[in-house]
Amino acid sequence: MVTLVVTLGTGSMDLYAQKLAENLDVPKLYSNIYQKSAELFNASFLCPAALKAAWEDWRFIRMLNQRNDNDIVHLPNHHLGRYGLFLKVPYIITAHDLIRYFDLRGYGTFIHHPNLRDRFYLSLDYRGVNKATRIIAVSQSTKNDLIRHLKIPEERISVVYEGVDHQLFRPVKRRLVDYPYLLFVGSEHPRKNFVGVLQAFSVLKSEGKFKDLKLVKVGKAGGSEGDFRRRTLQCISELGLEKEVHFTGYVPTEDLPAYYSGAECFILASLYEGFGFPPLEAMACGCPVIVSDIASLPEIAGDAGIRVNHRDTASIAKAIYEVLSDEHARKELISKGLERASQFSWEKTARETLKVYESIAREELEACPPK
Questions:
Q1: I need a surface site. Which of 59, 199, 281, 295 has the fewest CB within 10 A?
Q2: How do residues 11-55 score in pLDDT, each as one tens digit?
Q3: R_g of the chain, CA atoms, integer Å
Q4: Where are any strands of DSSP class E within the chain?
Q5: Fold annotation for 2-163+345-367
Q6: Do residues 37 and 58 touch, judged by C-beta distance below 8 A?
Q7: What is the pLDDT of residue 25?
Q8: Where do the structural domains in the chain lie, given as residue ranges?
């Protein structure tokens, strides 16, 4: 029997755990342990909150070991690997990406350069991923990263794509914005390349053809470990776009379909994505999509989105211009996007995850047959 740990929170990895919980008939353990740990990035070892978190970590590990003497545990994101290291039972872990690993190793600044405490815990996370009986990767791109960077044997990794809630994400007539706009949904972490989108938007505006066009940015700037908004505002000021960019901040999930449905197009020119929910959500809402041509985004978008070089501002601007100016191309993107998004569902994710559970249960039975 597999016990699924369900993390309580509003992030994309929490969404994954909660949607699995809705669609899988297995024992579940609900916890806010991940949300608490995520709030402590860039904290010092000796601050009161970090000391309290260490105590709660120990209690969580003890609870998992006590509750699941005969069970396999499914940890729904790679940052729970720090707990997996101390489990007495086999466990599955879902790896969504290696973003923090790249920051840890100094391959670039994808989110934030980790301090000493972060480096310690992130090291535990990825050691925990490596120890897992089976790893579920949310894309082939993430699987390739696990093999290349963590040296995990391919046969221990199963690719199971995440899903889209089609009851929520669908074309709607409701509008929350009364002017034409491009849409960006996500944080302002360096890996999201929002600065690159701003620069492309500036190129487009300089041509004078789209005077009424705005750029709407949905979502918080990022966590407390860095002043991500400062860099964004500096770029906007340098480009003279103060009146052209609108920040909504966090919006309720039920408002997202209206933002997607009303947009001229959606853009995500990230440097790295382990999966990427927003392009699929946009497609499901009938919004044309532009994505960068690296990591998981080409894999997830397929031929239903325009692919651009994330480092080439002119390439991004050209793609936006094409969507705005070519009605035939726009309609084709919308049609292909709706079809592409229909191939992803949480029900399908749950079915494929259950197959992983069943295969591991068989392996455990074969390794330790009943007497």
A1: 59
A2: 999 999 999 999 999 999 999 999 988 889 999 998 999 999 999
A3: 21
A4: 2-7, 28-31, 72-75, 91-95, 134-137, 157-159, 181-185, 214-218, 245-249, 265-268, 289-292, 306-308
A5: Rossmann fold (3.40.50)
A6: no
A7: 96
A8: 2-163+345-367, 181-341
Residues 6+ apart with CB under 8 A from 175: 258, 261, 262
Asked if the domains 2-163+345-367 and 181-341 are classified in one and the same CATH topology, the answer is yes
- Asked if residue 6 lies in contact with residue 29, where contact means CB atoms within 8 angstroms, the answer is yes
Mean pLDDT of the residues in the chain: 95
Q: What ranges make up the beta strands (E) of 271-366?
A: 289-292, 306-308
Token pair listed for 96: 């969504």
Give the global pTM: 0.95
Q: Copy the structure tokens of residue 15.
A: 């969404």
Contact 136, 353 (CB under 8 A): yes
pLDDT over 90 at 1, yes or no: no
Separation CA 96–CA 73 (nearest Å): 17
* Tokens 């933002």, residue located: 259
The CB-side HSE value for 231 (13 A sphere, CA atoms) comes to 17
The answer to whether 86 touches 25, Cβ cutoff 8 Å, is no
Beta-bridge partners for 28: 4
Residue 65: the pLDDT is 87
Q: How far apart are CA 319 and CA 322, in angstroms?
A: 5
